[in-house]
């Protein structure tokens, strides 16, 4: 990919470059761990069809990782170095929210990861057009939503008592995911600076932060409702 003029200008700014690399790094490691988790969840799938469906989703996540990795290489960055700062916090989040069964794993992939992905899409509003396009492509609908909604709703229909447990799990996940995403943004000066903006690049003021949180909350509520769970 040949950088556009606007992209070239943006990457001439060391602070911007550091922020873009951090964003790509955290997303790349997130997709790599998503691949690992979904492949592991496939072992718990109750049917061969479910196992195959999850294997396909895992393959899609790995393809997203490859796209992000290749973008970092295009920028002259070692992808492993770019991902390294995010290994400990993301691994800690996943260890702390390890699902106890197949259904909790599905809800985590849809609700927990969905909120984190929404947050990073919001950050993508502040990066150059090519990087933003890649982020939006990576977080496009991969078929996961339809699969998860179908399986979770069917399970609740068969055993309505599952609804309460999974709703509590979903609410826990949203709190953990939002805290984790905010913590990563705060801990990385480059990402915090990207959100804050600069003289020639507007950032988020208090009103904009409020609107962003409203969008995140509404998207979470829509996902829980789609699953047949109380937000």
From TrEMBL:
InterPro entries in alphabetical order: Ferritin-like, Ferritin-like_SF, Ferritin_actino
Cross-referenced SUPFAM superfamilies: Ferritin-like (SSF47240)
Taxonomy, superkingdom: Bacteria
Domain Ferritin-like, chain residue ranges per copy: 15-197
Protein's UniProt name: tRNA-(MS[2]IO[6]A)-hydroxylase MiaE-like protein
Organism: Kribbella caucasensis
